[in-house]
Amino acid sequence: MFSTLKPLPTDPILGLMAAYKQDTNPNKIDLGVGVYKDEQGNTPVLKAVKKAEAFRLENETTKSYIGLAGNLDFCQKMESLLLGEHRALLANRVRTAQTPGGTGALRVAAEFIKRCNTNATVWVTTPTWANHISLFEAAGLTVKEYPYYDYENKGLLFDEMIKTLKQVPKGDVVLLHACCHNPSGMDLNEAQWKVVAELAKDVGFTPLVDIAYQGFGSSLDEDAKGLRLLADTVEEMLICSSCSKNFGLYRERIGACSLISNDSTTADVSNSVLLSVVRSIYSMPPAHGADIVNTILSSSELTQLWHDELDEMRSRINGLRTLIKSSLAEKGVAQDFSFIDQQNGMFSFLGINKEQIDRLQKEYAIYIVGSSRVNVAGVSQTNIDYFSNAIADVLK
Ligand code: LMR
What we know:
Layout: H1 12-22, E1 29-30, H2 47-59, H3 72-83, H4 87-90, E2 94-99, H5 101-116, E3 121-126, H6 130-138, E4 142-147, E5 149-150, E6 155-156, H7 158-166, E7 173-177, H8 190-203, E8 206-211, H9 220-223, H10 225-233, E9 237-242, E10 255-260, H11 264-281, H12 288-298, H13 300-330, H14 339-342, E11 347-349, H15 354-364, E12 366-367, E13 373-375, H16 384-395
Parallel strand pairs: 1-12, 3-4, 3-7, 7-8, 8-9
Antiparallel strand pairs: 2-10, 5-6, 9-10, 11-13
Helix pairs in contact: 2-12, 2-13, 3-12, 5-11, 7-8, 8-10, 12-13, 13-16, 15-16
The protein binds (2S)-2-hydroxybutanedioic acid.
(2S)-2-hydroxybutanedioic acid is lined by residues 13, 33-34, 129, 131, 182.
């Protein structure tokens, strides 16, 4: 049976991560996979996480199953983190399942959408995180794209986006990135979120918000503003969240899939379907990550420590954006890279071509995704000169 299989190409992001690991060049720089790095190039375990883990080691009393929805305290805390004190929560219209990472949340959402409307199309931004498309297609859903990033002007194609979304059939799903758009770093502003929310209501599509970088853009609340505006306006929506980046819990695989329904009874029915989806994929989520997040968010001291650490990660990334812009200008690079300083989160497109990306990898051991997406957090005070000289050279 296996002999009928044809080899598939490696994932563009994870393949790059493996190639970087094998490279022996002491000057190598990893600007590929989206993980936060400190000045030394490490992805440290947050202090708040270490403390929560120490607490868990002492206080964990069982390894028995935790149930389909996972840790219910964690689920409730995630709802507050995402929605604040939104009236949908007060009206008991929100249900959440803890999932294995944000990717697990998206896969659960995909299967849930399929159960709601087997013919639904999921509309994603052009471009989007490459795995979005495979995830939805793997659940048997059709995926279509709507205009989003303006490669030429390094901004948004907002008018084109709205024009396409107006044509989306009722019953389809539109995926939106809450903040720190992956891969472009270009986000909607508040006025634009309002337009999209009104459109969702008028046209009748269901928004699915992917929020994988809450706290990496402006602040925890600011980054959830668009999502909350949608929840103000539409009766039903889905939210896929991740604790990989903001809690630095990448390998613990901790995220959540939340649904907002028009009333509490429908929320219960929808939840039964959501949990049946979970049961049919992985039965129950792992406990560790949720317990860590719940412990942090249950303690005002650990929450404060986490906020401080999150603020530090965000300021470092924003500082690096300014540094990249000024360093490239100092090296005499003719192209204007000021857009890097105006975009959000870990990613931006450098806007360089395939040949230049290949040269960066071969001649300088600088690893960038083939789309020219860079993880800004991979730059540091130590490697900025090397990085800027390399860019200046390949752009000559
Ligand atoms: C990324 O976009 O680099 C991250 O979300 C990691 C991944 O799984 O692709």
